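Lab notebook page, bench 4
Experiment: in silico fold of construct C2
Operator: M.H.
Input chain length: 721 residues
Purpose: comparison with the prior construct
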Amino acid sequence: MQKNFHRFLAALLIAALVWGSLPARPAYAAGFVVDSLADNNTAGDGLCTLREAIESANNAGNGDCGADSTADDTITFSVSGTITLSSTLPAIVSGQGALTVDGGGNITISGNNSVQVFYVNAGAALTLQNLTVANGRTTTDGGGVYNAGTLTVSNSTFSGNRAHYGGGIYNASTLMVNNSTVSNNGAAHGGGVYNAGTLTVSNSTVSGNSANYGGGGIDNLYGTLTVSNSTFSSNQTYENGGGINNVYGTITVSNSTFSGNAARYGNGGGIQNDGRLTVINSTFSRNSADYPGGSIHNRGTLTLHNTIIANSSYGGECVGTVSSAQNNLIEGTGNRACGLTDGVNGNIIGFDPDLGTLTGSPAYLPLNAGSLAIDAGDNALCAAAPVSNQSQNGATRPQDGNGDSSAICDIGSYEAPDTFPPYVLSTSLQPSYTSSGPSSFEVTFNEAIDDQPGLNPDDVTNPANYLLINKGANGAADTLSCLAGPAGDDSQVTVSSVSYNPATFTSTVTLAAPLGAGSYRLFVCGTTSIVDLAGNALNGATDFTFDFAVSRAALPATGFPRGQVTLLPPQTTAYADSGMTLDIPSLNLRAPIVGVPQTVSGWDTTWLGTSVGWLQGSAFPTWAGNTVLTGHVWNADNTPGIFAPIKNLRYGDRIYIHAFDQTYVYEVRENRLLSGLSGAASVFRHEDYDWVTLLTCEGYSERVDTYLFRRIVRAVLVEVR
């Protein structure tokens, strides 16, 4: 009594203040706290029951729960346990504000297998959250809830309810079921839910419900039903539609799983459709029907996209015709696959999808490694609503689920996660440079890389994720990894900025200054940082490394003094036999090509003799880029060298390289002299296509005992035979 007196006094004080300042009393939201598990409406006992709280929210209370309200109200509980009803709770009425009943996860409201639990009048609005509605029973409609107004259900369970229509819920207006479970209910029509209005089911489970007639899980009569990220399992009917029976209504199903549903003595173990049905990115498995349509039986309009239908026990996978079908995987063939043909419109017909076992909540069927459904969907369909690049298992679509570096969404409700590490596909760095080194370079990855600057240390544009070291005086890399950091006499080169092109998966790394002479190693960091969009570390958490050098020498010496025989020192440079031959018929020149290694001091061509030297560091012969081939203009034995006559080549003359059982044909485009002893920029100029540059010396001066010019002949690939 004292508690009620204080509530009454507080209500009078608030009312007096408001009434004194405003011409009309506004409605304020009220909160009612149920502190008893009893089911009564006994005024003055000092206890607030659920029945009394609803009456107060309807503006018709007895005062035990406080002042009545005409505004939006919320009922919460200070107790936990089961409230067993002796009669249906007071109807939720219109005109008194919307009502929310929040059980906090600890309240069950039971109809005691004898009464209906909730009844929502037309025009009223009720939200049920974090509670269980169980064992409601009525011989008419909606054992758990009858909804003629607006009903929202979230984080709740409907279990063991019975009715003629809609054992769990009867919906004649607007119903939303989110993050909830409707299970083990029974009815003549719609074991779980009977919908004649607008029903949305998301992130929920409809399981173990049964109906004598249509719709073991949901019976949809002329209604609009939207199902997303939900599971229908082990529902059954003794007529049509073990999971859902659609009678002239409109249904959209996305990112959902239908498993183990059955139509005994009827059609459509998963879904029976006599209206308009759209199914996108969903999975049907182990459903059955005694008559056609183990998973889907269609007699209306059916759109089927990115969906798996397989393992039907009886009745075939999909029976009927479809108006639109794209990128589906159906295990059956012919009339068991809705007449679809393998390979047409991306459909995979007649193959097992290789599904795992039900897991998760709401439950889904994973795709085993190697499933044909992986990376076989249509990205445009996955991106568009209602899928919106989401999946039932929570992975964002698309993922690279098979490691081929192509992110394509999967068929079905499940998206196989990307577990494959990214790797560096290429770098624009060259093994060697002459004169000055690069001031920037590119690194191209095989797939999309995390590129959220400032938000993530793994960001591909973070300069710290590119460790470039100068190997120091000892010429060896003492640094072992990004994680360990610079070591020994290695010195770190400053990376000033990094940009990233997500379309080509390429980062551009800019240095503080062009690199000078020295030996270098680049670490693209996997031990500490760079990851793909799925969080997989680069190279499986190892670094990518690349070694290169910037040479102090400009161009090699390619001629001995004229008028004398030069005694050669013992050979210290090994030339690798490439197996290739240079052939210039117009000069009667044919000679083997050998590889001349580059050091920080340049290339030593002393012992080439009658061979042609490929200057390693330039493009490999016959590959795209600029290949530099050199030969002596004058030999050590005081005779003309093999490249002495290249000055006679003219525009259009042909040069041949015989390699790998093929002949590469080049045509001369330029023949000129370079003044001075350098000219490296012209000789080693960058080319995207396949070019060959012939290099030798010219213009020997006895006075200064040196050659004054360089002769270069440049030719481009025109044919491969």
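Observations: Confidence is low (pLDDT under 50) at residues 1-28. The longest helix spans residues 2-21.
Next step: discuss at group meeting.
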